[in-house]
Amino acid sequence: MENGRSALSDGVLIVGTGLLGTSLGLALRRAGIDVRLRDTKSETLAEAVRLGAGRPSEPGDAPAALGVVAVPPEAVAGVVADLLDAGDAEYATDVASVKAMPAEQVRARLGPAGRYVGSHPMAGREVSGPGGALPDLFEGRPWVVCPDEHTDQQAVTRALAVARLAGAAPVTMSVADHDAAVALVSHAPHLVSVLMAARLVDAPDHEIRLAGPGVSDVTRIAGGDPGLWTEILSANAAAVHDVLSDLRDDLDRTLAALASPEPARSALYQLMRSGVDGRGRLPGKHGEAHAEFVTVAVMVDDRPGQLARLFADVDAAGANVEDVRIDHSPGQPVGLVEIDVRPGTDADLRTALTERGWNVPR
Amino acid sequence: MENGRSALSDGVLIVGTGLLGTSLGLALRRAGIDVRLRDTKSETLAEAVRLGAGRPSEPGDAPAALGVVAVPPEAVAGVVADLLDAGDAEYATDVASVKAMPAEQVRARLGPAGRYVGSHPMAGREVSGPGGALPDLFEGRPWVVCPDEHTDQQAVTRALAVARLAGAAPVTMSVADHDAAVALVSHAPHLVSVLMAARLVDAPDHEIRLAGPGVSDVTRIAGGDPGLWTEILSANAAAVHDVLSDLRDDLDRTLAALASPEPARSALYQLMRSGVDGRGRLPGKHGEAHAEFVTVAVMVDDRPGQLARLFADVDAAGANVEDVRIDHSPGQPVGLVEIDVRPGTDADLRTALTERGWNVPR
């Protein structure tokens, strides 16, 4: 399959050289694409150039095959319209995490804008700026492209080519489907994590001291940047509201079940069952459901080199590690390392690790 | 400090040889304590004995210094009362994860029962039964002991001795404080995780396919045993209700903020800020707040031996690993390994790994 290099033979112009823009530049340069960079902050641009993400765009440049706008959601439409009006690029896309809002704003500026198509690579890191950029950031991640009935086929072709050359797995869906999907799998989980973490703010120390790995998992993403998340949630407010009102209905039923004189076990059981079923639908590292992996737990202590020795032995056993977790023992130099492997390979791994002297409980 | 061996010189009787009972037997045997075991299922008892958790209790045995009742919460009171009535043990405790319900039921049977004190080791695994038992299960974990004004000092002394000999960190608090604490740090997070996971049950495949590590973290514990969790939540219904009604108030404010014509950014920002603050209060491996660790991220691919080589290099760099996460790339053989270390040691680790050829983005 032609991977899209020819569709981009006139090069790509990336506007905004933060984490996403710079990562994309690095990936496209590696794929041999001519990449021009632009940023309103000259130091940010200079750092991206120094890292090898592309060359600075110049006034005399011929129009790029595609402009990729990697700026905050609320600034997307203005940049896209300027880019196309000025002839800096023949077509344009953006990489913001919401799609209805920029699409509407572009339409308000340009009318039905066939030369623009929104897109969203499902990739990111907790750091921002060009210094955190990775050429592999998009590797294997979904990259959603959202055409509508007015979109030129060339815009779609070029956006898909960029996604593919960056190593992502391109997928097309409507703007509405995209925004509903990210509300469900990203924005609502963030709010739920925050709602739980907020309960801890004023809790007495003796309660916090009993916290274990469960509450830590649930609240991990609540640590994300408050300003950025406020923007994201505001820009996708309606779709997030839909998911959370369904959740509130379940929460109200749960509160009623807990408040009834004899707690309503069947209602609680139904909810717990839905939790197990919903959890089972999530994909793992290779796209399978989590339920398809098996966990091998190994006791380790804090002596230097324990993890290195463990993974050397895991490797010698020929096991392919799908995921790793360390189950903490607050204040103590001992813990359980949980290694997820494919079913059918767990028994051999247990045997091999036990033979090498590891404590491997069932 | 005398660690409590003499307080238990007449031995410990463990009733219920599931995961907790058998793990405790293994830990106490290792500490040189005489351990007798009892279980209504003869195969379960036999397995615990075979694993080395103790010897079967016999009709002619002298009273044990302490009976430890490790049966489901709703069965605790009956077993405790029978044990003390029959003179099988001088004092008794239990290890159920709720404390008000068994204490009330013991009182209903025995009156103010000075010879019983409830306790709760904050330890567990996702497997059940004696086969999953670990002598180190309690190592470094909080073990809460809940005396009241009627409790004999000897009951407390002996329960604390068991906790200490099992390697746990004993702490005393009232029954009400305990139940409020576990509602906050364990039961409410479980329900929140379930409420989010339940949203995924009927979601279309194209939405699920966009799921990443965030929703996976939030919903991890939702996979727990529905029957067991129904019992736990029913037994601590009032305290869980308190936490969740506060959460519902925040949720209602959030829904209102999302539904207002121009989303109310300041309300959303306040909530996000509380999430960050609450998350920051959770202890890490050594009891510090998470915020006190720094993450070093390293790109790895799926080639055999990558994790072993990485941790060998981490070890050679002299770094002490506080936590590890693998950030998945569904369907692709590449990922980001995130290693948490103490602040001040991260720069050296980055340098050392970079020198050894690893891709270590900022």
TrEMBL record, chains A, B:
GO terms for molecular function: NAD+ binding; prephenate dehydrogenase (NAD+) activity; prephenate dehydrogenase (NADP+) activity. Pathway: Amino-acid biosynthesis. InterPro entries: 6-PGluconate_DH-like_C_sf, ACT-like_dom_sf, NAD(P)-bd_dom_sf, PDH_C, PDH_N, Preph/Arog_dehydrog, Prephen_DH. Its EC number is 1.3.1.12. GO terms for biological process: tyrosine biosynthetic process. Residues 10-290 form the Prephenate/arogenate dehydrogenase domain. Keywords: Amino-acid biosynthesis, Aromatic amino acid biosynthesis, Oxidoreductase. Pfam families: PDH_C (PF20463), PDH_N (PF02153). It is an enzyme of class 1 (oxidoreductase). NCBIfam families: PRK06545.2-3, PRK06545.2-4. Belongs to the prephenate/arogenate dehydrogenase family. This is Prephenate dehydrogenase. It comes from Phytoactinopolyspora halotolerans. The lineage of its organism: Bacteria, Bacillati, Actinomycetota, Actinomycetes, Jiangellales.
